Amino acid sequence: MGNSLKAKMTVDKQFVLAEVDPRLYSSFIEHLGRAVYGGIYEREHPLADEYGFRQDVAALIREIGVPMIRYPGGNFVSGYNWEDGVGPVASRPQRLELAWRTLESNEVGTNEFIRWARELQSDVMMAVNLGTRGVDAARNLLEYCNHPSGSYYSDLRISHGYAQPHGIKTWCLGRQRLHSWRTRILLKMH
């Protein structure tokens, strides 16, 4: 029958090679289907909080204990203009979302997501659009989220009701195509 390969595995919970980084159990949320609208956010739902986020869904996520959540997702971020998702919701533009062929209302954006994730005690990994945008838009989002005050984008955040910087520490460059590249860089850093 030829040579056959055999494998053997020994599992011993007392034998530990290393700690498992809790970020391994992270997740992401994307403006796709019912993930955001009708999933985590549904203003008219009887269990929605004052901001429109469903507390039944939040309770389940808290129970799981998701350490970090990437936003705004995968394919969606490749065509997303982050500026559309900040400021007064009534003034936000509705855009044709080409990845999923839907109309994006931009009711949920950067500040709403960050507030929601922090309520869940999850860290935020903010994704930047490197599909249709570039480094300049990414730099502006970083300034909006993290710079204290005195610059255009930090003062814009303040005018939107967020006096304190969000302090985002983990950033995703683009979407899945860059993940293996990013992982290799992170591994070389440790």
Automatic annotation (TrEMBL):
Extent of the signal sequence: none
InterPro entries xref list: ASD1_cat, GH
Pathways involved: Glycan metabolism
Domain Alpha-L-arabinofuranosidase 1 catalytic: from-to ranges: 63-177
Source organism, top-level taxon: Bacteria
Biological process annotations from GO: polysaccharide catabolic process
SUPFAM superfamilies: (Trans)glycosidases
PANTHER family noted in UniProt: ALPHA-L-ARABINOFURANOSIDASE C, ALPHA-L-ARABINOFURANOSIDASE C-RELATED
Protein name per the record: Alpha-L-arabinofuranosidase 1 catalytic domain-containing protein
Annotated organism of origin: Paenibacillus albidus
